[in-house]
Every structure is written in C-alpha cells, then in structure tokens.
Amino acid sequence: MRLSFPILAFLTAWSTVVYAQTTPTERAAAAEILRQIDALEARLAPTERARAMAATDDPERDRILARVETLWSGGLRELSDHIGRNPEVGWQEYETVDTLSAVLDALGFVVERGQAGLETAFVGRWDSPAGTDGPTLGIIVEYDALRGTDEPFHGCQHNAQSPVGFAVAAALAEHMTRTGTPGRIRVYGTPAEEVGPPAKTILWQAGVFDEADVLLRSHGTDETSRGRAGFGVCCLNINEVRYTFKGRPAHQRSSWNGRNALAAAVQFYTSVDHLRPAFRPEASIQGVIPEGGVAPNVVPDRAVVDYYIRYPDEVYLAHMQRMIDNAARAAALATGTEVEIDRYGEYRDGISVGTLEELSFAFAERLGAPRLVAEPQRPAGYEETGFVTRDIPGLGVSVFSSPAPAHSYERWKDSLTPVGHTGFLLDAKIMAAVLYHFLIDEDFRATVKEEHRILSGLFDQYLERLHEAYAGEIEEPVDAPSGGK
Q1: pLDDT tens, 220-270?
Q2: What angle do CA 139, 82, 408 make, to 5 degrees?
Q3: CA 426, CA 223: separation in Å to the nearest integer?
Q4: CB atoms < 10 A from the CB of 106, how many?
Q5: Could you give the CA distance from residue 268 to residue 327 in angstroms, rounded to a whole number?
Q6: Residue 398 and residue 284: Cα distance in Å, rounded?
Q7: Other Cβ atoms within 10 Å of 135 Cβ, number
Q8: Superfamily grouping for domain 47-233+351-460
Q9: Cis-peptide into 197, omega within 30 deg
Q10: So what's the pLDDT on residue 21?
C-alpha cells in the first residue's frame, strides 16, 4: 500500500471508524486492521454483555459499592483535599508519599517504597487469606502536581487518584476476605506523571507491573466519555528530547577564541521552526531553551534545548525525530560546537479493550454519571504510557469532575468542591464494579484477555501498514556524525 487506496474502500472505512484514529493516513493505512477490530467487537458483543452485567442485581457488588462510598466519605475525601491543598511536583512528592504510605498501611497493605530506584514510587501489596490462586487486580494511582509560575497546583486533579484507588482496593480486599475469594490486589504508586522521563515506563521496564492481570486508574475530566476498542493514547506519541550544545568559553571581546553554544542552540531552534512546514499538519513540537549561558561577557560554552516532539502515530514521529536530530547536528557543525542528543522519555500509543471500556460506561450510565457522551471516542488506553497497555489489559475511568479546562487553576479548585468530589466517588464505584466482575467472572476475565491478545497482534500489523503508507515520504534511518570542532 502506498496511499493509493480505492476511494470507495476508504470512504467505507471512514464511515465506520471516523473517530478511531486521528489522521487520514492512519485511517486509510489501517482500514483493514480497523475492520478486523470491528469484526472482533461484533463477535464479542461487549456493549450488550456490559449492559446485561450492569443491569443484573448483585447484592454482593452493591455491598462493595456502598463500602466504597463509606470509605470515601469517612476520610478518603478529606485525604484528597489534603493532597490538593499541599501540592508537590513530580519526583518531589515526599510528604505526599509519606501520608499515602501510612494510610495504605492502615488499610492492611504492605507498602514497599523506592520501586525501580524511584524514591517516590511504591507498591501496596495485599494477598487474600483464601490464597493467591486467583487474579491479581492492579490499581494505578498518581499524586504529583503541575509546575506553576507561582506555586505547584493540582490542575490535573491527581490529588484524588490515590484516595479513589485506596477506596476501591480496601473495599475489594474486605470482600475477598469475607467471601473467601483467592487473589491479590496491588496498588501501584506512580510519581511524576507530568514530568519526564515517564515513571510508568521505568516501572514497566523494571517489571514492577508484571504481577497484574488487569490495571485500572482514574482521572479527572470535563465529560464522561466512552472509548473505542483499538489503538490510541491521551496525548499523542511523544519523544522528550534534550539537545545539549557544548562549545568553548572566551571573553566576548575576543569571541573568536570561543565556540558559542548558545549561537548553536538558537540556530537549531530556528531551524526547527523552519522545518514545521515540512511536517504534516498534525505534528506538534514544543520547546524551550532552559540553559543559554550565565554571563553576557563570556561566550556560552553550554546551552540546552528541550523539546516535546508529538505526532498521532509513532512511525511518522520517528521520521520527524530524525530530521530534527539532523538539524541539531547541522547547527553544531556550522558553529564548531558539539551536540549531545538525549531522548530521555518516550510516550507511545496503547491498547484500549472494548470489553472493559463498555462495562465502565454501562456502570457510568447505571450510576447516573453526569455529562455522559454516548458516542464512542478515539481509543485512549488507560494511562499515558502506552507501553504498559500493550502488555497488560486495563482501563482508565474518567467521570466528569470539572467544567474547567485541564491544567487550570479552576480545575484545581473544583477538585476541592462537590463537583469534583462527586466525580471522584463515581470513579471509585465504577472501578470497583469493573474489578469485581473481573475477579468473580472467569468467562469475562478470559474474554478480556482474549481481546487484548488479538488487539496486540493487530497493533503490530497496524504499524507495518503505516510503514508502507509512508514509504517514499519519510526519511530512512542513517548513521550521522554528531557534529564537532
């Protein structure tokens, strides 16, 4: 395939998967893959199954949901507000983790801190008294605040995620103890969601999530949406890349004796701006120059440019990365400096599992979640680091918790008021309901795993189709000199 798809086939695919992927190239290249996903979902019938499960009276499930509400109103809502009023940014959440660890310990979990060498990462472990010959339920919690010009602030409402997850974990642990249900619960404390490198990728690479059979997390949002099955992520594929230019210092009155690293950085920054028309319009490149010298009368011998490079698919992103890297090497070569290129973080597409997404939405409907959007949206995965979702099926639960824009002071304030509290409690109840069914329903559990396995195989084919679609347009990898004196 070379972007020469028959128009009729393209329009047919478009009519059924208009929201499935972002760009026309994605939709066209992946048309056959998306049809296979549609066929898989038609066979599994997740919507019908989810509605039947949610509509069935289940006193034990209702007891769990009631217990979630008691735990939330009995102290965990106040914990959410406490974290919200005492924000700590990524990698510095020390007091927050102290508090969370104490609370999780009091709920009967063994807390192990310093996971994967990250000081503010932890795992809370609980094994059923009935034994561990059952599923391992994983809950991801976050707690870092945004970096603000005046002060840190919880404009993404991460203050609520740990209390929500704790309510779910504690209610399910009590149920498993009371009913003699075997299995395990793991609460994964993941720091620095807003700061690279992505902590979840580091934890995944270290095998921290390996025990989990399923992973859930919650997140604040401005609507209660419904995700499609397939491939996607919240914030596009991202490369976090730091370009460090190194020169030679000299007095500015004899600047010819030096090599100006700031001049190289500025030339590079300008070159990237000039590259923008050469990239497809969906590209997003965000950069700053955090270092550029310290004294006007000294030729800067070090300058740093930090970029977030984003694109809806990772194949074209790699092409962008190669061109931007070459621009950095060219700037170094032209100015007699050297450049070091450090790709310190990567975020990638994940896999959304329809059986979990539909069950979540069915309970959102049953529980009366506000601002329901019934039309399925682009697949979103269950967290921003899609590498994890490719290994472990999971779900992100997001009930309306604020009408304010994300990363705003207004959304922070809403996390401390009834609009936020209501959304967070509904998040907890939906998460508990989904995990309850995953725990007790072996057939449902097997369906989730089957769907995830098939989607994982289709994802590999999807990437192959994208490589074919971009052939002749994107730059091929080549070994290039680093640039130097």
Answers
A1: 999 999 989 998 877 789 999 999 999 999 999 999 999 999 999 999 999
A2: 80
A3: 13
A4: 11
A5: 6
A6: 25
A7: 21
A8: Zn peptidases (3.40.630.10)
A9: yes
A10: 62
Q: What is the pLDDT of residues 9-41, one digit of tens each?
A: 333 333 333 344 668 887 788 889 989 999 999
On whether the 237-347 domain is CATH 3.30.70.360, my answer is yes
Spatial separation of the C-alpha atoms in residues 470 and 315, rounded to whole Å? 8
In 3D space, the residue among 426, 451, 420 whose CA is nearest the CA of residue 357 turns out to be 451
Q: What is the pLDDT of residue 27?
A: 78
Q: In 3D, which of 99, 77, 78, 73 has the Cα closest to residue 88? A: 99
Q: Which pair of tokens denotes residue 193?
A: 């969601």
Residues of the chain under the 70 pLDDT cut: 1-22, 475-485
Token pair for 85: 């009023």
414 near 404, Cβ under 8 Å? yes
Q: What is the DSSP string of 397-464?
A: E--B--SSPTTSHHHHHHTTSHHHHHHHHHHHHHHHHHHHHHHH-HHHHHHHHHHHHHHHHHHHHHHH
* Region label for 301, one of left (φ > 0), alpha (ψ between -120 and 50) or beta (otherwise): alpha
Distance, CA of 467 to CA of 314 (rounded, Å): 10
Domain extent listing, the chain: 47-233+351-460, 237-347
Q: List, as one string, the DSSP characters of 85-152.
A: HS--BTT--HHHHHHHHHHHHHTTPEEEESGGG-TT-EEEEEE-TT-S-SPEEEEEE--PBBP-SSS-
User: Which pLDDT score is estimated for 374?
Assistant: 94
List the Cα angle 408/165/235 in 5-degree steps: 45
Residue among 448, 429, 415 at smallest CA distance from 364: 429
Distance, C-alpha 45 to centroid of its chain: 27
User: Quick count: other Cβ atoms within 10 Å of Cβ 396?
Assistant: 27
55, containing H or E segment? helix 46-55
